[in-house]
Design a protein that fits this description.
Helix content is 60%, strand content 13%. By secondary structure, it is α/β, with parallel strands linked by helices. Strand 2 and strand 3 (58-63) form a beta hairpin. Helix 1 (2-28) packs across helix 12, helix 4 (103-117) packs antiparallel against helix 7 and helix 5 (121-141) packs antiparallel against helix 6 (149-170).
């Protein structure tokens, strides 16, 4: 019956909640956490599921808003002392000790600008970012852990040159809205230069937060199929269960056997 299924899910989520505490502790000791959020309905009202991802752990948490007061209530934001990589959520800049901007997310804005204005600087910046990421991957594969200082200086100078070119082209951009949006994008690139280029200076930082976005797809698919949750408690149960399952998958463990071990009280994630 529906009641029996719900009772099992509640029991399962309660068992997963203890594992979620351990996952959170693992995340606290990470050098970098990729984070993102997706809208989800709870009793017809828009809320959010936010996730925190590394190469070995995934944690999902429900929240009603994306603003600073809501984030301040999450322990992982308040106490984490590493780097957050995200989609330019300015509220997250109040937490952690460093921030990386998702450059794949930025590329979408650059493509939009190229299509709307016809200016070449945004296409050049997109290609420049991809080229730097490709160069970093090549160095990592060769066992090198950093760029030479002179190479970093050349990258930094070229970045500034493209922005200067963009500011000059923006003076002649047609269309009031397109001109304003382009100027906003250029100002963002200039102000958050260190964050967009952090992946060059620290090879442990991701070029984007795609790992986090991929982990949120299951939540988006559930929203499409089920239409949301009836209660916040149901959202919480879902987050606890999926945190356990996705972390198990991330570590290459057998899901079915891990669930059996969990329900039998055997430690699964140490």
């Amino acid at each position: 019956s529906t009641g029996s299924v719900y009772a099992f899910c509640r029991k399962f989520s309660y068992a997963c909640s203890t594992v979620c505490d351990r996952i959170e502790e693992k995340l606290m000791n990470a050098h970098e956490i990729c984070t993102d959020a997706t809208p989800i309905k709870v009793n017809g009202k828009q809320t959010f599921i936010r996730n925190f991802s590394t190469e070995k752990e995934v944690l999902y948490l429900g929240c009603d808003k994306k603003d600073l007061p809501t984030l301040e209530q999450m322990r992982i934001y308040k106490e984490f002392t590493g780097i957050f990589t995200h989609d330019h959520e300015t509220a997250i800049y109040h937490f952690g000790t460093g921030h990386g901007e998702c450059n794949v997310h930025l590329e979408r804005y650059l493509l939009k600008n190229t299509e709307e204005t016809g200016n070449g600087w945004s296409r050049q910046m997109s290609g420049f970012l991809k080229g730097m990421n490709h160069a970093r991957k090549a160095l990592k594969q060769s066992g090198t852990s950093s760029f030479a200082p002179e190479q970093l200086k050349r990258y930094s100078t070229r970045y500034d040159e493209i922005i200067a070119k963009g500011l000059e082209q923006n003076k002649h951009t047609k269309g009031r809205i397109a001109k304003k949006e382009e100027k906003t994008l250029l100002n963002r690139l200039k102000k958050y230069k260190a964050n967009h280029l952090l992946f060059l200076y620290d090879f442990r930082v991701h070029f984007s937060n795609n790992i986090s976005e991929k982990d949120l797809r299951i939540c988006k698919n559930r929203q499409k199929m089920a239409g949301g949750f009836r209660t916040a408690e149901g959202r919480k149960m879902y987050c606890e269960i999926m945190s356990f399952i996705e972390t198990i998958k991330r570590r290459g463990l057998n899901i079915f056997q891990s669930i059996i071990d969990l329900m039998n009280g055997t430690p699964v994630i140490e």
